[in-house]
Design goal:
With 108 residues, the chain is mostly helical. Helix content is 77%, strand content 6%.
Length: 108
Amino acid sequence: MDTILNLLIAGLSFFAGAKLLRGVTIKDFVQCIIVAIVVAVLDLTLGTVLKIVTLGILSLSIFNWLLNAIIIQVADWFLPGFKVDNFWWALGLAAIVCIASGIFSSII
């Protein structure tokens, strides 16, 4: 049940990010849930590999923010209904998703 709730919170966070940033386009809320699932899977696979490869820099939380932006860019490449114009928009979306997920998780 926690996994489903976390995916809904992440989907809601992506939806909020798409509404706040003009460089990010997501078709609808169902697409936001799909983006949240793809980003979670990419974080478990690609994110883990990137964190292992860059083990020396891992202590910096700003590096994790950059990794999340890279994962969002990879998800953009995979999903046709999800469009991020460039890396800077992905960086902004990563920040908004992190902040919004924290706010929504604390409310729920």
